[in-house]
């Protein structure tokens, strides 16, 4: 069983820890939190030691695998430290803030060839995601897609009250694109490839971050429109368009229901019942690679995921540049 240390104590860390336990592949041994009280509350619920010093956490936390779910701007520094400590690393999306930080990650991994690093883009590991990709490959003609993931964030209440929560600040590499937009960017890149051109029409909020926005990806023969945000709710389905056939999904990130509408008017259900915990598929995939890294299939899967992460990181950066969204983390560019 893999020993696990986690960074951060918010709801997504709780969901990850529960998925790790359900997989029976991991045992939580330690938690790092900047605040001792929140760290202890998390440990009281889930077990393990609590650390407020990151270096001590890596050194004494008795963890083979480190899961990082801190504010986005901290991902690169913490992931690099974990790699240099020869830990296996899982980083919540978005992996890092820009391509220069990604290049630093690649260099560190090259110096530590036994370390594997994963971006926790959960939906790409789910069976329903793969079912969509398979159906897209079978479609004779592609005419584009409309992918939507727009969900009101409780943290936006804080923004309206005059506060600056991390997820809505450029200081911490936050905003709608980095939080919910990354899901639909992953969808588009995994299903259709790297776009030839991108545009991003962002709606800024008081903090300077983007609250919602519309991105357009240009391909050789079609465009893909991405609609995402954290300042309102959308109930629109997402669609992939063929000629007379269409794939309809309830939500471009959750993918709980996926229906294929064929050209002859018939329909076929592509989705299967999702896991109770949407992170279960990814934690199992990560454990399989960590436990058997030299297996040819595992090595191929890992390289595919890592390459996809690199493309997504570059596309997110290009989108931000189109919208003139600059993070302090970009100052090293």
TrEMBL record:
Alphabetical list of InterPro entries matching this protein: Gfo/Idh/MocA-like_OxRdtase_N, NAD(P)-bd_dom_sf
Domain spans labelled Gfo/Idh/MocA-like oxidoreductase N-terminal: 4-112
SUPFAM superfamilies: Glyceraldehyde-3-phosphate dehydrogenase-like, C-terminal domain, NAD(P)-binding Rossmann-fold domains
Gene3D superfamilies xrefs: Dihydrodipicolinate Reductase, domain 2 (3.30.360.10), NAD(P)-binding Rossmann-like Domain (3.40.50.720)
Name of the protein described by the UniProt record: Oxidoreductase
Organism: Furfurilactobacillus curtus
């Amino acid at each position: 069983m893999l020993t696990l240390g986690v960074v951060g104590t918010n709801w997504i860390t709780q969901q990850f820890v529960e998925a790790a336990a359900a997989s029976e592949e991991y045992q939580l041994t330690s938690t790092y939190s900047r605040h001792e009280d929140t760290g202890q509350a998390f440990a009281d619920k889930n077990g393990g030691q609590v650390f407020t010093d990151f270096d001590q956490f890596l050194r004494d936390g008795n963890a083979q695998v480190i899961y990082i779910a801190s504010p986005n701007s901290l991902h690169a520094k913490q992931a690099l430290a974990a790699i240099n400590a020869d830990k296996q690393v899982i980083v919540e999306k978005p992996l890092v803030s820009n391509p220069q930080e990604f290049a630093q990650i690649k260099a560190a991994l090259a110096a530590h060839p036994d370390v594997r690093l994963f971006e926790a883009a959960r939906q790409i590991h789910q069976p329903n995601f793969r079912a969509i990709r398979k159906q897209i490959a079978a479609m004779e003609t592609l005419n584009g897609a409309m992918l939507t993931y727009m969900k009101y964030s409780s943290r936006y209440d804080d923004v309206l009250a005059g506060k600056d929560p991390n997820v809505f600040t450029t200081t911490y590499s936050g905003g709608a694109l980095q939080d919910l937009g990354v899901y639909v960017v992953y969808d588009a890149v995994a299903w259709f490839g790297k776009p030839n051109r991108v545009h991003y029409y962002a709606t800024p909020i008081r903090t300077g971050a983007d609250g919602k926005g519309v991105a357009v990806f240009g391909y050789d023969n079609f465009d893909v429109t991405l609609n995402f945000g954290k300042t309102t709710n959308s109930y629109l389905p997402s669609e992939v368009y063929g000629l007379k056939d269409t794939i309809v999904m309830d939500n471009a990130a959750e993918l709980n229901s996926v229906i294929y509408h064929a050209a002859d008017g018939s329909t076929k259900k592509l989705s299967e019942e999702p896991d109770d915990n949407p992170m279960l598929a990814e934690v199992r995939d990560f454990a399989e690679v960590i436990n058997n890294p030299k297996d040819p299939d595992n090595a191929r899967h890992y390289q595919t995921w890592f390459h996809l992460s690199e493309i997504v990181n570059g596309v997110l950066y290009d989108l931000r540049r189109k919208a003139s969204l600059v993070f302090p983390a970009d100052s090293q560019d």
